[in-house]
């Protein structure tokens, strides 16, 4: 095997491994491969050929493809991630915070300016409102729940994350949820709800009803930032949160 072929094989293996980590278990025909060839075509080299499908891992392996067995290990495994272009403008990666054994995981869209600066999720004005919902509404300490986002790095100008950025980051969220094993997920806002549920249904129709994300009951509700702009929607959020509390056997009195 020539040096070029060994190098091509190494690149191909790394590419396939990352696709598997990202949850891809099949390569559609025509997908470009590193070096410009398409899946199903034979790249330049000594008879190398693209596999028809990617083995996403052994049976029983984590669905995320990540191997960390606790949240600290997962944070280390993610490292100084540059798997998508959101890494370019971030101050720091915002992994998530809270109780690793939480019964509830709150999932937002992505870090904003304050979160990017502090390295923690939901710390700005919207974060204060989320804290009030948890502490004054649910009557539990914020440290009892786990809070994270769909993407871990701040999108420039607070734009929505692009699909390829969500795809690159989703193994991290999947593994966070695999490790925390919550009884309930609360999706905060349209983007988180539509992304987790793989739907374009408006948040106004998603909220208030139970859905499921990878086997975990999921309640979509409005994002706290939306409530800051439209305080009248607090009543709907409280109705959604009461359903979560009811499901967990918590008193909403
Ligand atoms: S958004 Fe996610 S995939 Fe993209 S650089 Fe940040 S941690 Fe990595």
Topology:
Blueprint: H1 3-21, H2 71-78, E1 97-98, E2 104-108, H3 113-118, H4 125-137, E3 146-149, H5 163-180, E4 184-188, H6 190-197, H7 203-206, E5 211-213, E6 216-221, H8 224-229, H9 234-247
Parallel strand pairs: 2-3, 2-4, 4-6
Antiparallel strand pairs: 1-3, 5-6
The structure holds iron/sulfur cluster (SF4).
Keywords summarizing the entry:
Uracil-DNA Glycosylase, subunit E; single chain; globular; binds iron/sulfur cluster; 253 residues; 9 helices; six-stranded mixed β-sheet; disordered N terminus
Structure description:
The structure is a single chain. By secondary structure, the protein is of the alpha/beta class. It folds into 2 domains: 1-61, no CATH class; 71-247, 3-Layer(aba) Sandwich (Uracil-DNA Glycosylase, subunit E), CATH 3.40.470.10. The chain is built from 9 helices and 6 strands; from the N terminus they run ααββααβαβααββαα. The protein has helices at residues 3-21, 71-78, 113-118, 125-137, 163-180, 190-197, 203-206, 224-229, 234-247, and strands spanning 97-98, 104-108, 146-149, 184-188, 211-213, 216-221. Strands 1-3-2-4-6-5 form a 6-stranded mixed beta sheet, with helices on both faces. It is globular. The relative contact order is 0.12. The model is unreliable at 1-59 (pLDDT under 50). Iron/sulfur cluster is lined by residues 78, 81-84, 86-87, 93, 151-153, 165, 168-169.
